[in-house]
Amino acid sequence: MVNTNTTITVQINGETHDFTTSLSLPELLEQIGMNPRLVAVEYNGEILHRQYWSETQIATGDRLEIVTIVGGG
């Protein structure tokens, strides 16, 4: 029997995380409990504009820096 599950390893804010399947960026944010409307994302060293998030597939070796937007005064 062939194992069809693919595990990917990515770095998020300097910490290594494993996922059992390939994910789009919004799916990854949802899985780690972050609200996509309230974060900014640096993807492999580049700020990734929100319009490209849904077409960005996360792969092994990717590096993400995720910053939460905080309001207040």
- What's the mean pLDDT score? 90
Radius of gyration: 13 Å
CATH architecture: Roll
For the record, the count of structural domains works out to 1
Q: What CATH first level would be assigned? A: Alpha Beta
Shape: globular
Describe this structure in words.
- The relative contact order is 0.27.
- The protein contains one helix and seven strands; from the N terminus they run βββαββββ.
- The mean pLDDT is 90.
- The strands form two sheets. A five-stranded mixed beta sheet has the order 2-1-7-4-5, with no helix packed on it. The chain has a two-stranded antiparallel ribbon with strand order 3-6.
- With 73 residues, it is mainly β.
- A hairpin with a 2-residue loop joins β4 and β5.
- The protein starts with 7 loop residues before the first strand and ends in a 5-residue tail after the last strand.
- The longest helix is centred in the middle third of the chain and has 7 residues.
Quick structural summary:
The chain is mostly beta strands. The protein has one helix spanning 25-31, and strands spanning 8-12, 15-19, 23-24, 39-43, 46-47, 57-58, 63-68.
Write the layout of secondary structure elements.
Elements: E1 8-12, E2 15-19, E3 23-24, H1 25-31, E4 39-43, E5 46-47, E6 57-58, E7 63-68
Parallel strand pairs: 1-7
Antiparallel strand pairs: 1-2, 3-6, 4-5, 4-7
Observed structural traits:
73 residues; mainly beta; Ubiquitin-like (UB roll); 7 strands; Beta-grasp_dom_sf
